[in-house]
Write a structure and sequence with these properties.
5 strands, 24% strand, five-stranded antiparallel sheet, mainly beta, 67 residues
Amino acid sequence: MPSYPPPRPTADAADRQAACVSTACPEQGWSLLCNGVLVFEDTGELLPNGRIVTPLRPLALTVGSAA
């Protein structure tokens, strides 16, 4: 039985970042995945349909907030 690679997640899937990297430019901070998603080192994404996914950044503590 021939083994085929598992299907890649689509650009709309929740696990879209699990797709393999087809092109990488680490000096500029981005990678293009095989599903067409452009992933940036700050965890932001640009989807093939032009939709922007904002970076996942931790919330900063504000002045006077309890830690």
